[in-house]
Write a structure and sequence with these properties.
Layout lengths: L1 H19 L12 H4 L37 E3 L6 H10 L8 H12 L6 E9 L12 H4 E14 L5 E6 L1 H21 L5 H16 L2 E5 L12 E2 L2 H15 L15 H12 L8 H4 L5 H4 L3
Parallel strand pairs: 1-3, 2-6
Antiparallel strand pairs: 2-3, 3-4, 4-5
Helix pairs in contact: 6-7
């Protein structure tokens, strides 16, 4: 009797567990393993740390967050691989003809996750010192410096949006922060138009913004892939990156809008008093013109 009761209890438990399971037909299963690991990064990366528009829910991995370390790249491929991607991988890697989708994904993951897979997004020419230290006699080669904006790929989506996402390297972030703190903020402080608290707040906001900066472009940028995983963007895309970085780098605190100047209350009180008093008859032109000498009236 004890064995029967145990068996009946086991069957009852299994039935209850089965009824609690959701319907598998309603579940949206991802296409591959990379889609399972994707986390929703709900921060608007719009090229500035001020919310200039409503934030949009972007599909980005957790490594896109600020101060997040570099992890393995997340790749989402469709059921069929495009021909241009196959030819690019055959040129840059040892991918064989007729490889499956999983082989394409593993080849991309291995190539783009290496330490040498650093892409050059743009190059920016900036001053080497604050404006007060620069002189006309200094050569141009010493007055300016070239900062390379380098990044690594964190996400490839070839299913829904056909996008690729880049995040700046730690060396590029440190170079931009060094310029912003030592040159741009010093120039703002020397103008005496902004307080020290405003400049310090601007510096903190820039550090947060440059750490969470992510550049997203079309997935066709992978055509510039090199055998070591590195690459370089085209001129048009490089100009977009340069514009976005400079908008962050050279931003100034918002100017304070002064309220409109109001008229003194004393004049407002005197006006009705002056208008209520009648003008004396002696001051009327017709009453005293006749008393003037004749030579006074015809001087012109």
């Amino acid at each position: 009797m004890s064995t029967r009761t145990n068996n009946t209890q086991k069957t009852r438990v299994s039935k209850t567990n089965i009824t609690k399971l959701p319907n598998r037909s309603k579940l949206k299963t991802p296409t591959n393993e990379g889609a399972r690991k994707i986390a929703y990064h709900e921060e608007a990366i719009m090229g500035g740390y001020k919310e200039i528009c409503t934030p949009v829910r972007l599909l980005l991995p957790a490594s896109a967050a600020a101060f997040a370390p570099r992890t393995s790249i997340y790749i989402v491929l469709g059921s069929k691989v495009k021909s241009w991607l196959t030819s690019t991988l055959k040129r840059a890697t040892k991918l064989r003809h007729g490889s499956s989708v999983q082989q394409h994904q593993s080849c991309l993951t291995k190539t783009l996750s290496s330490s040498t897979a650093i892409w050059t997004l743009a190059s920016i020419t900036l001053h080497r010192a604050p404006d007060t230290e620069l002189k006309d006699s200094i050569p141009l080669t010493q007055a300016f410096q070239l900062i390379r904006i380098e990044a690594y790929i964190i996400f490839i989506d070839m299913v829904s949006r056909n996008e690729i996402a880049f995040k700046l390297t730690s060396d590029s972030i440190e170079s931009l922060i060094k310029y912003h703190r030592g040159i741009h903020c010093v120039n703002l402080a020397n103008t005496h138009t902004h307080s020290e608290l405003e400049v310090e707040k601007l510096q903190e906001e820039f550090v947060q913004a440059i750490h969470k900066f992510v550049y997203r472009t079309h997935v066709s940028a992978l055509e510039g892939l090199e055998p070591d995983g590195s690459g370089e963007l085209l001129c048009e895309k490089s100009g977009e990156v340069k514009t976005n970085i400079l908008s962050l780098l050279l931003q100034a605190p918002p100017q304070k809008i002064l309220p409109p100047r109001q008229k003194p209350p004393l004049l407002q009180k005197l006006r009705p008093r002056l208008s209520t008093h009648p003008i004396p008859q002696e001051l009327v032109l017709g009453s005293w013109v006749g008393a003037l000498p004749v030579d006074w009236l015809f001087l012109g």
